[in-house]
Specification:
8% strand; mainly alpha; two-stranded antiparallel ribbon
């Protein structure tokens, strides 16, 4: 599909419902629900009535129309040009990350032979809520590491039990009583 050169673009976007053009610098409406505002979806509405027409199809539980202002033609062209340059650089660099602010991807729980020794294995909010409900006490953040270490010890013992039993599945009975 060929897109017209930037100089030939006469409107910001088309209304997602009635397909009328939304002019540069004019008011338009967006849905408050984040899934309607993602770059690949990008729903734009010329009036609140057009926004309202998409609700039965999308079945939002709670939504409202947010009034926005379209950029000027120059701003739009500059943003589109910058996006095109970023895509070109990303293709030239290959699959490596292009944004220096992105953190390296971390794979958790893979099939590695090395156990993830410092990962937190406890749902902290649930543990703190339990301690507060049971005793009325607060819980120090240092408890998380200690509990994670204890859980690792229990899991290691259960893994050994499952191996001794010739299974590849750790079961609840492996946590009950380790063999002496």
């Amino acid at each position: 599909m060929m897109f017209p050169p930037m100089a030939e673009v006469e409107q910001f976007k088309l209304c997602s419902t009635c397909k009328k053009p939304i002019a540069f610098g004019s008011a338009y409406f967006q849905c408050s629900v984040s899934t309607c505002n993602r770059p690949r979806v990008g729903l734009f509405f010329c009036t609140v009535e057009c926004w309202d027409a998409h609700l039965p199809m999308m079945r939002h539980r709670e939504a409202w129309a947010e009034r926005m202002t379209a950029p000027s033609a120059a701003d739009f062209e500059r943003d589109e040009h910058a996006a095109t340059e970023r895509e070109t650089r990303a293709k030239e660099q290959g699959p490596a990350m292009t944004d220096p602010n992105d953190k390296q991807r971390r794979i958790v729980g893979g099939a590695s032979d090395e156990p993830a020794s410092k990962d937190v294995l406890i749902v902290v909010s649930k543990m703190k809520a339990y301690v507060r409900a049971a005793s009325g006490m607060n819980t120090s953040d240092g408890v998380v590491d200690v509990l994670s270490d204890k859980v690792r010890e229990l899991c290691d013992a259960a893994i050994a039990e499952a191996r001794l039993a010739g299974r590849k599945t750790v079961m609840e009975r492996d946590f009950r009583a380790p063999r002496e």
